[in-house]
Amino acid sequence: MLALRNFSEDDMESIMNTNVVVVGAGGLGSPALRLLTAIGFGKIRIIDRDIVELSNIQRQTVYNTQDIGEPKVEAASANLQLLNPDIEFDPLCISIQEDNAIDLLKGTDIILDGLDSFKARRVINRASLDLDIPYIFAGAVEYYANLSTFIPGKTGCFACVMGDAKDNPDNTCAQVGVTPTLLSLAAAVEVNEAILLATGQKPTLENRLMTIDSGTLTFDFFDIGKSDECPVCSKTVQSKAAEANDITATQLCSQSFNVSPAKIGKLNLNEIAQNLNQSYSIKITERSVLVNLASGEKITLMSSGSAIIKGVDTAEDAIRLYNLILSKNS
Ligand SMILES: [Zn+2]
Prior knowledge:
By secondary structure, the protein is α/β, with parallel strands linked by helices. It is built from 10 helices and 14 strands. Zinc ion binds next to α6.
């Protein structure tokens, strides 16, 4: 980078001092994470609730076949740490929602979109405004991607552009697919915006919407602005910062659930493992405790307080096991 025209040592210093968060470590998040890591953004938080599946690997380039069955954030951090040992990773295996978004995004400088739903993007958008953190939006499906950079107080927001567009269940990546090359193109643009923001330059997608059609290799740009009628950024919308200790369970694939507390914390995994040792078969790693129950269920508890629970049929069962493991320690 330092050999580049218009790129100074100070710019590199700024990048190394920038703390980014990638929300969603899937098709868009993977190539974005590889670039951010290789370039050397100092601290990278990764948020994703899912586990790695074989079908992910052709486009989710941060994983390899040995990661199948592992929480994505843990596998991504481990693989990326090999790429650049100087970076501090903060993996959070959790589903981002209205009541935890502020906690999850707080303390970062730039939010990068690796999501696949409008619903989650609305949550990020609101939190980005509340926290005054720029949000680099990207969405990709089939051969088409949309991108823009939203800066609170300076540009419009995601809701200004997208209105109240809802997720169309017939037009998801699972239904119509998404081409891996498009994901790399879009992710590269996202990271380019992040570099501009980190080095104090004007992002090229500030007040602009970029569309990519990788089928015809067409790149279009549209001027966009702030909507006076935007219900999100034109009024002061206070987010309901959650104090509740509610636990949510999200189904990942059949018989697998992510169970997360509304407020993330820092668990003492060694202590938990010690207390559980009597009654369960357990394995402790640096970032998680794996608990195997005699009845066949497997629980991977992360230090953030989130857990992946395999071998249960319902969200209620997942929450019951989660409480069982944690109440042994209270
Ligand atoms: Zn708005």
